[in-house]
Amino acid sequence: MQMNVIFISNVDSLDWKDLSAEDISKRVTAKVKPGSIVLFHNAAKNTPTALPAILEKLQADGYTIVPVSQILIPGETTLDHEGRQHPAKAPAGFFFGSSLPPGQSAGSSQENTSGS
């Protein structure tokens, strides 16, 4: 089975606009936050020159550089307004697995069956 994964970057380097290496570096390092996904383009002219300075600065600031596969949350997820991934939430009144209210089994109703 093939699984498609969609992710959204929340920091665009704009390297495709042929910005200078210094401008790319300033832009990226100013916008990165914990959990950011940075978008770079393979054919951008100045990205190879900008990357060493970007990586050095981010690591000096305490960031760990990882592939996207290490930060994606598996299973059903949603994206917030900043493009950050979160586990999907169940609709109101929906219970997962054994998280049913006390005394209720799957498929049962909540009506009183005690005869009172």
Topology:
Blueprint: E1 11-12, H1 21-31, E2 38-39, H2 47-60, E3 77-79, E4 85-87
Parallel strand pairs: 1-2
Antiparallel strand pairs: 3-4
Helix pairs in contact: 1-2
As a percent range, the share of helical residues equals 10-25%
Largest sheet: 2 strands, parallel
Number of helices: 2
Strand content: 5-15%
Give the strand order, joined by hyphens, for the main sheet.
1-2
Number of strands: 4
Give the assembly state of these chains. single chain
Mean of all residue-level pLDDT scores: 78
Order of helices and strands: EHEHEE
Which class do the helix and strand fractions yield? alpha+beta
Low-confidence stretches: 96-101, 108-116
Radius of gyration: 23 Å
Q: Looking at the structure, what is the overall shape?
A: elongated
Report how far apart the termini are: 53 Å
What does this structure look like?
With 116 residues, the chain is α+β, with helices and mostly antiparallel strands. It has helices spanning 21-31, 47-60, and strands spanning 11-12, 38-39, 77-79, 85-87. The protein has a two-stranded parallel sheet. The chain has a two-stranded antiparallel ribbon with strand order 3-4. Helix 1 (21-31) runs parallel beside helix 2. The longest helix has 14 residues, at 47-60. The radius of gyration is 23 Å and the shape is elongated. The termini are far apart. The model is unreliable at 96-101 and 108-116 (pLDDT under 50).
What would the keywords be for this entry?
116 residues, 22% helix, 4 strands, two-stranded antiparallel ribbon, two-stranded parallel sheet, disordered C terminus, alpha+beta
